[in-house]
Amino acid sequence: MHIDTKCVHAGGYPDAQTGGINTPIFTSSAYKYLDTDTRLYQRYFNTPNQEAVVKKICELEGAEDGIVFSSGMAAISTVLLSLLKSGDHAVVQDEIYGGSHAFVEEHLGKLGISFTLTGREVQEIEKATKTNTKLIYIESPTNPLLNVVDIRRVAGIGKQRGILTVIDNTFATPVNQNPFLLGIDVVLHSGTKYLGGHSDLYCGVAVARKDIAAIIRKTAANFGGSLNAMSCYMLERSLKTLSIRVERQTHNALRIARFLEKHHVVSMVNYPGLESHSGYKIASSQMSGFGAMLSFELKDRTAIDFMRRLRIIKPALSLGGVDTTICDPATTSHQKVSGDVRKRLGISGNLLRLSVGIESVEDLIEDIQQALEDK
Ligand SMILES: *Cc1c(COP(=O)(O)O)cnc(C)c1O
C-alpha cells in the first residue's frame, strides 16, 4: 500500500455491531475481566482506541509496535528513562527541542546517568561514545535552523557498537522520513504538531521493534502518561489526512523558500530543500520531501515589526498545523537559552521560523511580500 492509502485504511477498529466505517470511541475506564485473559486499562496502553491508532502509526513509520502518550514530552521522557539506568552514558545532540534538552540536563544526572552533548556531525557523535554508552539521541531536521543529521550513519554507529539509537522525527513526519527504515531503533513524535495537524490536539508517540516497545510500555505504565480515548480517536482521524496535508505543506514550503531566497530584504533562508542549504545532499538521500518548516533572517528590520504586518500568517507558538504560523525563536522557543549560546547556534534576534500550512501558496507569498515591502 502507498502512504496515502495507509493513512486512510491502516489500523482502526472494525465496528462489527453497526458496520460504521469509523472507529467507535470507547469511553470506559473499567472493563469486565472474568471471561477474558486481557486486562484492559488506559494506563496499560491496551484499550481499543489506543490500539487502533497505534496500528496506523506503526504502518506509517514501518515499525513493529508503538505507544501513544499524552504529550510529546511524555513520550520522550518515558523512552529515555526506560532505556537508560544508573551508570549508563548517553550521547545527545545539542540542537534538539528545548524541552528535551531541559529534560536531559535536569534529570539524567541526578539519576546517575551521564551524558555528552554533541554537534550534529557523525564524527562528533562517534567521538562522544564511550564503553558505557547505551543510547544516542538525535533530531533531524533541527529547530529552528533546519540542520540535517546523517541518520543512516548514526544508525550504523549504533549497530556497530551495540548502542540504541533514538530520533525525534516530529519535523519530518512519517510522510517525508522513516528513520526506522534507515536503521534507527526508536522513533519519537510530538503528535501535537503534524500528526494532529490542526493545533487542537496534544499527544506523543514512540514506535520501535517489539522487544524495545515492550520495555518502554512497562515503564510507561508506571509513569502514567497515557492518551485518552477521545484524543486517540482525534489523532486517528487526523492521520487519515496526514499525507495530503504534509504533501501540500511541503510543496508550499519549497515555493516560499525559493521566493524568500531571492528577496532583497532577506539575508538568509534555512530550508533543507534549497540546494544552497548545508544539509541538502544528506536530506535528499534520507527524506522523500523536505518538510514544511523553514526559517529566515531579515535585513534592517526586526522580526516583531515584520510579524505585525502579516495579514494571513499568524504569529503563534507551536507548529505543524494547517494554518501557517510564524514565530521568532529568540523570544519564544529559545528565550531561556543564554545570548552567547544563541549566538553560537546561529539564532539571531531577527530570525523568523515559519510553519507552512495548507493555504494557497500564492496567498501566503503575497502576504509575506506585502509585509516585507511595507516599510
Ligand atoms: C513540540 C515538540 C516536542 C514536545 O512535544 P509536546 O507535545 O509539546 O510535549 C518535542 N520535539 C519536538 C521537535 C517538538 O517540536
Describe the structure.
With 375 residues, the chain is α/β, with parallel strands linked by helices. The chain folds into two domains: 237 residues, Aspartate Aminotransferase, domain 2, CATH 3.40.640.10; 132 residues, Aspartate Aminotransferase, domain 1 (Alpha-Beta Complex). Helices cover 39% and strands 15% of the residues. The chain has 14 helices and twelve strands. The strands form two sheets. It has a seven-stranded mixed beta sheet with strand order 1-7-6-5-4-2-3, sandwiched between helices. β4, α6 and β5 form a beta-alpha-beta unit. α2 packs parallel to α9, α3 packs parallel to α4 and α3 packs across α8. The longest helix has 21 residues. The protein is globular. The N and C termini lie far apart (51 Å). Bound molecules: pyridoxal-5'-phosphate. The site of pyridoxal-5'-phosphate has 15 residues, from α3 and α4. The site of pyridoxal-5'-phosphate (PLP) has 15 residues, from α3 and α4.
Low-confidence stretches: none
Instruction: Tell me the distance between the termini.
Output: 51 Å
- What's the CATH architecture of the largest domain? 3-Layer(aba) Sandwich
Largest sheet: number of strands, sense, barrel closure = 7 strands, mixed
Order of helices and strands: HHEHEHEHEHEHEEHHHEHEHEEHEH
Number of domains: 2
Residue share in β-strands: 15-25%
CATH topology of the largest domain: Aspartate Aminotransferase, domain 2
Specify the CATH homologous superfamily of the largest domain.
Type I PLP-dependent aspartate aminotransferase-like (Major domain)
Basic shape: globular
What class would the helix/strand composition place it in?
Answer: alpha/beta
Q: Percentage of helical residues?
A: 25-40%
> Average pLDDT across residues?
96
Count of helix runs: 14
Question: In CATH's first tier, which class of the largest domain applies?
Answer: Alpha Beta
